[in-house]
Design a protein that fits this description.
It contains seven helices and nine strands. The chain is of the alpha/beta class and 218 residues long. Bound molecules: S-adenosylmethionine. This is 13531_t:CDS:1.
Length: 218
C-alpha cells in the first residue's frame, strides 16, 4: 500500500515503537506494540511488514471465506472475523473486539472497483448506485464508536473527489471526515504514489490519515 511507508515510519518515530525489534523484544517492549484492526483485509497484503515496525494486527474482517482463510494462514495469531461488515452481528464482533482490546490503529482498505476508472467510464450517478461504494460508512461508524489513535484509509485516487450524499448535500469523503472528526483528529488526505516510496510500481493511491491531536504523523 502506497502510504504505508510514510505512515509506519512516522508512527515509529513517535517513539512508541522505537525499541521494538523482532526476536529480541522484552516483555515491556512487546507491550509497547500498537494494536491494529484491518477492515476489508483481503488476504492481508496491506498488513505485510507492519509487524516489523511494531504494529500487531490483532483482528481483521473480510467478506470472502477463501480470502479470509488465506489471511488466517498468513497471520495465524490475528483474529479473523469473517462476514459482511454491514451484518449487525459481524459489526458488533469487530466493535466489541476493538473496545475490549483497546485497539489503537484502524486500517481501512475498502473495495475500490466501484470508484476505479479502469475498464469502465463511470459517472457519478453510476458510482452512487453501487452499494459497495458506501461500505466506508460502516468504517466511519466504527470510528465514531471506538477510540482509535490512528486511522489509515487507502483507495484509488478518485475516492477523494467523488461526492457522497451527506446531511442533505453532497460532500467528499474528506469533507465528511472533517465534519465528523476534526475536533478530535488531525485529518489529511493525499494522493501518493508507490513509486516514490521504493516500490517498483507506478501506483497512485488515495491515502487518508486521521490521528489524535496529541500525536504527530508526518
Ligand atoms: C481492496 S480489497 C482489500 C485488499 C486488502 N487490503 C489486501 O491487502 O489484500 C477489499 C476487500 O474488501 C472485501 N469486502 C467487500 N465487501 C465487504 C463487506 N461488505 N464486508 C467485509 N469485507 C468486504 C473484499 O472481499 C476485498 O477482499
Amino acid at each position: 500500500m502506497a502510504g504505508l511507508k510514510i505512515s509506519t515510519t512516522s508512527l515509529y518515530s513517535n517513539n512508541l515503537l522505537s525499541k521494538v525489534k523482532d526476536n529480541t523484544h522484552t516483555q515491556r517492549e512487546r507491550e509497547s506494540k500498537i494494536k491494529g484492526i484491518s477492515l476489508f483485509s483481503g488476504v492481508g497484503v496491506s498488513n505485510a511488514y507492519l509487524k516489523d515496525i511494531g504494529i500487531e494486527i490483532v483482528a481483521a474482517n473480510e467478506l470472502l471465506e477463501k480470502r479470509a482463510e488465506f489471511y488466517k494462514h498468513l497471520y495465524p495469531k490475528s483474529n479473523m472475523i469473517i462476514g459482511d461488515i454491514r451484518d449487525e452481528k459481524v459489526f458488533k464482533q469487530i466493535l466489541t473486539f476493538a473496545i475490549k482490546e483497546k485497539v489503537q490503529l484502524l486500517l481501512i482498505t475498502p473495495p475500490c472497483q466501484g470508484f476505479s476508472l479502469i475498464g469502465k467510464n463511470k459517472n457519478e450517478e453510476q458510482i452512487l448506485a453501487d452499494e459497495s461504494n458506501f461500505l466506508i460508512f460502516k468504517a466511519i461508524e466504527l470510528i465514531e464508536k471506538c477510540d482509535f489513535d490512528y486511522i489509515l484509509i487507502e483507495n484509488v485516487p478518485r475516492f477523494l473527489t467523488v461526492s457522497f450524499p451527506y446531511k442533505s448535500a453532497f460532500k467528499s469523503l474528506t469533507e465528511i471526515l472533517v465534519d465528523k472528526f476534526s475536533n478530535e483528529y488531525h485529518i489529511e488526505g493525499n494522493i501518493l504514489n508507490a513509486r516514490d516510496y521504493g516500490v517498483p510500481q507506478n501506483r497512485p493511491r488515495a491515502i487518508v490519515k486521521l490521528y489524535k491531536k496529541k500525536y504527530s504523523w508526518s
